[in-house]
Amino acid sequence: MNKDKLVYVKDDEGYAIRKKASEVLESETIITEEEYKKIVGHDIMLKLTGRGGKREGAGRKKVYKCRKKATFELEETDVISLKEYAKKHKISKNKAIHKAINLLTGNEN
Predict the structure, then answer these.
(1) CA 4 – CA 22 distance, rounded (Å)
(2) Strand order of the sheet with strand 29-31?
(3) What are phi and psi of 108, to 5 degrees?
(4) pLDDT of residue 85
(5) How far is Cα 98 from Cα 83, in angstroms, rounded to an integer?
(6) What is the pTM of this model?
(7) CA 72, CA 30: separation in Å to the nearest integer?
(8) Max CA pair span of the chain
(9) Which end of the chain has fewer CB atoms surrounding its CB within 10 Å, N or C?
């Protein structure tokens, strides 16, 4: 099996392609890889299709500034009431507990 070397060529109209060295026509000019990338806009394509990395303003916004994890034992009926209240008002269970504590302590924040 004869493997032919691939080269970058530019035709007389200015288009660049990659093809086998044996298939290069007389009207085509062999160019370097850097010239080929410049003609086809390789750097622009990489910039436009780039992915990943941290973006400002991306992700979920923080609801609580300083959170602490704690575990409490509650009656089953209290847990069910908490879940139902949160579902009815379309808020999280944490927000429902926060509202309950504010009502008990007299803080309306």
Answers:
(1) 7
(2) 16-20, 6-10, 29-31
(3) -110, 50
(4) 94
(5) 13
(6) 0.41
(7) 75
(8) 89
(9) N
